[in-house]
Amino acid sequence: MIPHTYLEHGLSILHTRLQSPVLPAPTGPHVEAHPFITLSRETGAGATTLGQLLLPLLDRELGREGHEWLLLDRDLLAQALTHHHLPERLAAFLPEDRISETKAAIGELVGLHPSLWTLEQKIAEAILQLAHVGHVIFAGRAANLITRRLPGGLHLRLVAPPEVRAERLAALLGCSHTAAFAHLERTDLARRRYVRTHFDQDIDDPRLYDLVINTTHFTPVATAQLVLAVLRDRVRHTTPAAGTLTGSPG
After folding, report:
1. pLDDT tens sequence for the chain (250 residues)
2. Domain presence at residue 22
3. How far apart are CA 238 and CA 116, in angstroms?
4. Considering the domain boundaries, does residue 130 fall inside one?
5. How far apart are CA 58 and CA 61, in angstroms?
6. How many domains does the structure of the chain reveal?
7. What is d(CA 70, CA 247) in angstroms, rounded to the nearest whole number?
8. What's the pTM value of the predicted model, to 2 decimals?
């Protein structure tokens, strides 16, 4: 994996936050809702690009001393595994990637990875821990469903027509349009199946999100500005007395 500045910086933040003791979710009339974002996305809809663009904007406008914003995506998770002396290939067995039960069982038996249930629980616990603290962008991994009972979350879904996403993937991966289309179909199916199997939800149901954005009609910069404006409005209307954010709970 080619190191990126945001990955190295994000790994440092992730390590620090996960070393903090896990506290129970606060309750009561004076709860402060710490902002965080979940990004559900169709393959090739631009979630990683959006997340990277949002980081400096969020740090500047909604950041706090010692609480820089973190983008938790697949690349950062893979680096975290390597950092903790676990094989990077474990990323292939984490929740969002639905693999065959036979392959999973064999991998567990030969010691390739812990049980899928254990991995899923660990990732869900880490997502909840990070969401309690706030100032984090979760890309995928059904984070909107894991955190849906927490105040402070802005839950987004990024979509685009298959032709547009296949064209983007072909340019990014340097492959044919046919190969790119097959990749996005396979990946979208895996994500859809995972959400249905583990949460009994339809990943395409717009009611699971606060905002669904068709990235065909917005540049990445314009999309980032739109998300920032929505989150800024949410934070402005956060009332500690109520302990919730106005609008859809996602």
Report:
1. 344 565 566 656 666 665 655 555 554 444 567 899 999 999 999 999 999 999 999 999 887 777 789 888 876 666 555 555 444 444 554 545 444 444 444 444 444 444 556 667 777 887 888 888 889 999 988 999 999 988 889 999 999 999 999 999 999 989 999 999 999 999 999 899 889 988 999 999 999 999 999 999 899 999 999 999 999 998 887 655 444 444 444 4
2. no
3. 37
4. yes
5. 5
6. 1
7. 24
8. 0.75
